[in-house]
């Protein structure tokens, strides 16, 4: 495949073409608690991991909505693979906050996978030319097959924590090579098991100054993807793709399903009709809200940086995103209720989908804190999770 001519159309077609292969290996991925190497390399070959690079960096220059649709298509095949692709492809988004020298050193190819947690769980002591970084981070999704790793940390000088003029701790995010990081096999979870989201740590690791960044300072990126919430925009592709897969599965199942006690076809059963209709309604509303708010935001960014948009414009994608996670959880729970006890056995994909969506819904992006933060922002109060609003 000629990656120099990749477009949204070709990348989406590639994601859709590989989805059936992912579905065939869904149970294998869940059991292994990681994405198999051959699938990682297949996605690399297809150009999936470069989808978030802007044209400034030689990437395909996809919109956020186009990126979301690719994540959605992969998640339709396997939720964990879609999640890891979304996380891993953020390399291109982070690139906009690095200078050209760092991009050249860290990203000699656009097909690299980045794993890691941006929130500060480490300490970075300033030294000549950079920092000495120590810390242990959780939720390293995709770290089992990553090329690069990031970690957020508080910055210290002479052992004292630095603060901003507003009195807040100074936080930076640090790039590391995967072979510099110790990984701990901690990801033995109920759901999203295939994401391999293990803990990882470094101790006194030297990181050059230019291999660190802050979302408050764009360097080599100037476009709509060089905004602090650019990665969050595409996250609902995972629950939406998963919910769509579950809906299609149960609709196919319903075509030949008969109620054992009465012999009545599901097609003629009020409960089956109602639940499927209700779930489709939830899905349509949730997906439409995500698509509309992302599309509107993308247009608004033609004129203004995200931080300068109106309050309503800044909260819309955050609320639609959180709603998508919660709606997908409700949809899959209702479908399992309809299918009944058959849904709890591991050969049934509903078992994996239900575990995956319940695990996903514990992510901070689906928490009450997002909704509280939007309300606080509108009222002039203190958001608990300011990051989703582009606030430091």
UniProtKB/TrEMBL annotation:
It holds the Pfam family Acyl-CoA_dh_2. InterPro entries: Acyl-CoA_DH_C (IPR013107), AcylCoA_DH/ox_N (IPR013786). Residues 14-96 form the Acyl-CoA dehydrogenase/oxidase N-terminal domain. Keywords: Oxidoreductase. Residues 238-366 form the Acyl-CoA dehydrogenase C-terminal domain. This is Acyl-CoA dehydrogenase family protein.
